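Re: weekly structure request thread

Next one in the queue (177 aa):
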Amino acid sequence: MTPSEITLVLGGTRSGKSCFAESLIAASAQPIYLATAEPRDGEMTARIAAHRARRGPAWRTVEAPLALPEVLPDLARPDSAVLVDCLTLWLSNLLAAGHDIADATARLIAALDRCAGRVVLVSNEVGLGIVPDNALARAFRDHAGALHQAVAGRADTVYFVAAGLPLVLKGIGSRAP
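Done, posted below.
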């Protein structure tokens, strides 16, 4: 199996993280967009449509709102590159469905180890603000922090994007395109 290249792109809402992540693999022969969002309302439907339009027809889209660890290794091959957008939506889906988050995180890390191609994962950094005032929001923030630490620990390169500008957090010799 060819060793994979794993990249994590973190940032706040509307920071430019998805556009930056797309730029990392847009030139790949077979770019794949692994979507975790579900169009549960009109606003999310519009966001999904805007993302698809921005990417264009060269991208293959695969939807995996819950089954990310199961689907990812089959898609990440030496001849393809996979963009996972986004981990925090995947986490929201898992919480809503009552899944064990620690187990799902461990399964994702194991799945990354089985990937044979380039994988870029996008996620919202939600731990920079105030402590949420309710238990569910605090649990989400805490799970997101643990998920990010686990994925960053496995990743070869980690970026933090703010105002459309990527900052390299991890990765020797890494550079923004």
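The chain has a mean pLDDT of 92. The two ends are 27 Å apart (CA to CA).
Next request, please.
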